[in-house]
Amino acid sequence: MILEIRDHPYQYETEKLLRVFFPNEKLRIVHGEAADCGEQAVVTTAATDTQVFVRFTDKNGVLEESAARGDDGELAMATLLFRVLQSRTGYTPKWGLLTGVRPSKLFLTLERERGTDGAKRYFTETLLVSPEKTELASSVGAREQAVLSLSRPESCSLYVSIPFCPTRCSYCSFVSQAVSTPSARRLVPEYVRLLAREIKETGQIAKDLGLRLESVYFGGGTPTTLSAEQLETLLSAVRKAFDLSHLREYTVEAGRPDTVTPEKLQTLRAGGVTRVSINPQTFNDEILRTIRRQHTAEMTDRAFFAARAAGFADINMDLIAGLPNESVASFCRSVDRAVALAPENITVHTLSLKRASTLTADGTQFDKESAQAADEMLHYAASALGAAGFNPYYMYRQSKTLGNLENTGYTTAGHECLYNIFMMEECHTVLAAGAGAVTKLKAPHGADISRIFNYKYPYEYIAGFAELMERKRAIPAFYEAHGI
Ligand code: SF4
C-alpha cells in the first residue's frame, strides 16, 4: 500500500491511522505523487490553505472526499482519513482517531480544561471514540487521579528486571531469555551477582538524594524463574540498599505458574513482598500448548492457592484476549474462572503481534474477524468483572495490537497496583536496575523527563556493567539541575 503525502505536514498522524485500519499491509510513504503504483492500493492525502483531501484508490475503484481545513489541519486531515477508511473497509476502530498510548492521561487533561462532560463530548464527537471506550478512559482517569495524589516531589519507585523465563511463549516480544537453553542458564548466577551490586549502588544514590521509595516492582521475564536463594540475594540487596520505611507496595511477578513453588513464595513473603502476579493468560489447556506455555490451568490454580497460603493478600492475574485459535466462549470461560478464584486484580491484555515474537515469524496476521472477536472478549470482561466488583484503574495501549484495542487493569476496592499507575503516568522517578531496564527521571517540580538506558540483553549487561554504573551518575546530575 502506498501513502502519498502532498503539501501537508501530517505524515505521522496519517501513517498511524492507516496502520490501524491495515495492520498487516507493508506501507510505502511517498512525498508527492507515486510514480510506480502497480497493483497496490494508493491513499492520497493532500491539503491546501483551506481544504484537506483524501483519495483511496484500489482495484475496487476510487473513493475521494474533501473537507474544510479549519483551525486544526491535523485534526481535519485525521477525521477525513478516518471517514474514508471507515467507509472503504466497513470497520470502525473503537478508539477512533486516538492512536496514543495513554487515553486516560489525555482524558484527565481534557477534564481539567472542559469538565467531565466536556471531556467526554470531545472524546466521542471530535476524536470519534466509542461511548464504551470513553467511559473506560473516564473511569480509569478518576481512579488514577486518587493514586497519583499519593506521589510527592521526592517520591521514587524501583524497577528490577529479571529477563529470564523457563521457555519462550509464542507471542513474546520481550528480551527475555529462556533458561531452557544452556547458554542463557549459564548467565544467571553472574547476572544476579551484578544486579545485586547495581541495586546497592542505586540505593546509595537514592539515599544521598533523599528520595522516598514508594513502590518496588520485580518484572521481566519471570522473576520466579530464579531459585529461592537467588531471589533472596536480590530481596536482601533491596532491603539493605533502600530505606523501606515509606514503601507502600512491593510486587514480584510470578507470571508463569510453572515457576511458582511454596519455598519461593515463602522467600518472597519473608523478604517483604506484598503483591504477586500469577498469570494464567488463558485457562484453556489446548491454547496454552499452542502458545507454548508449559503449564496447565490446574497448575495456575495450584500456584494461586499456594500464594494465598503463603499470606499474599494482593494477587494479580493476567489474561490475554485474542490468542490464536481461542474462541470468544473459551476466553469468557477464562474470565469466569479467574473471577471465581477471587484475586484482587485481573489485568486483561489484548494480543499484540510485535516483530520479535515467534507468532509473527510464523506469519500470523490480524484480520477484521479476529479484531471483532477481541472486541467482544473485552466487552465481556468489562461487564463480568464489573458485576464481580472489579473496576478499571489502569490502562495503556500498544502498537500492533489486535483491533488497536487496549490493556486494562481491573481491581477490587483499595487494591490498585500503585506502581502501574506511577510508572504509566510518569508522576515520579522510576529507578531501574537490570538488563533492558530504563531509569526514568522525572523533574520533581516540572514535566521534564530524562531516561537512562541499560543494555538490553543479559550478556551485554554483564559485559558492559562498569559502563552502566557510570551512566548512573546522570541521576544526581539531573536532581542537581532540577532541584528536589
Ligand atoms: S512469560 Fe512473558 S516474558 Fe516470559 S516468555 Fe512468556 S511472554 Fe515472554
Short note summarizing the structure:
The protein is α/β, with parallel strands linked by helices and about 475 residues long. About 45% of the residues lie in helices and about 20% in strands. The chain has 16 helices and 18 strands.
Please state the oligomeric state of the protein chains shown: single chain
End-to-end separation in angstroms reads 50 Å
- By CATH, the topology of the largest domain is pyruvate-formate lyase- activating enzyme
Tally the helices: 16
Side-by-side strand order of the widest sheet = 14-15-13-12-11-10-9-6-16
Number of strands: 18
- CATH architectural name of the largest domain: Alpha-Beta Horseshoe
Q: Sheet with the most strands?
A: 9 strands, mixed
Task: Explain the overall architecture.
The protein has about 475 residues and is α/β, with parallel strands linked by helices. It folds into three domains: about 1-90, 2-Layer Sandwich (Double Stranded RNA Binding Domain); about 105-145, no CATH class; about 150-470, Alpha-Beta Horseshoe (pyruvate-formate lyase- activating enzyme). It has helices at about 10-20, 75-90, 105-125, 130-150, 180-210, 230-240, 260-270, 285-290, 295-310, 330-340, 360, 370-385, 420-425, 460-465, 465-470, 475-480, and strands at about 1-5, 30, 40-45, 50-60, 60-70, 155-160, 165, 175-180, 210-220, 250-255, 275, 315-320, 345-350, 390-395, 405-410, 430-435, 440, 450-455. The chain has a nine-stranded mixed beta sheet with strand order 14-15-13-12-11-10-9-6-16, sandwiched between helices. A five-stranded mixed beta sheet has the order 2-1-3-4-5, covered by helices on one side. It has a two-stranded parallel sheet with strand order 7-8. Helix 5 (about 180-210) runs parallel beside helix 6, helix 6 (about 230-240) runs parallel beside helix 7 (about 260-270) and helix 10 (about 330-340) runs parallel beside helix 12 (about 370-385). The structure holds iron/sulfur cluster. Iron/sulfur cluster binds next to loops.
